[in-house]
Amino acid sequence: MASTDDPLSIALFSEMFMADQLARNRLSRALPKGMELSHFSVLNHLASASEEKTPAQIARVFHVTRGAMTNTLNRLEWAGYVHIRPDWDDARRKLVSISPAGRRAREAALSAIVPILSETVREIGADRVRQAIPVIREMRLRLENEG
Question: Looking at domain 33-146, does it have CATH number 1.10.10.10?
């Protein structure tokens, strides 16, 4: 049975949660007007995808419900940033791809947030950040596998 007094774990996750909240707030303010962090994240994912994705596939990547992803995709479609079409092989499914306007919106968002991210890494030091990434990645993978 785990102890309720685990200062190392509590300190680590407290710092991660606070850093996450601060990063989300700072990046959200820097994004182009009307774009939310969830919109950018989906556009960024689709921009690197080699093929169309189903809404369910995208929802799994972001660990959100299909309903939440449908809402995000509908907003992106309304803005003209994604194309959603029926799957011609299975009419029950839809396929999503990024549009040229979506690629431009992603580039504009990257232009706004990369300087913030780069400055933070520069201030901490690239070598220290490189050392932290494998630990954070392993934590993520362990948490994913437990869920």
Answer: yes
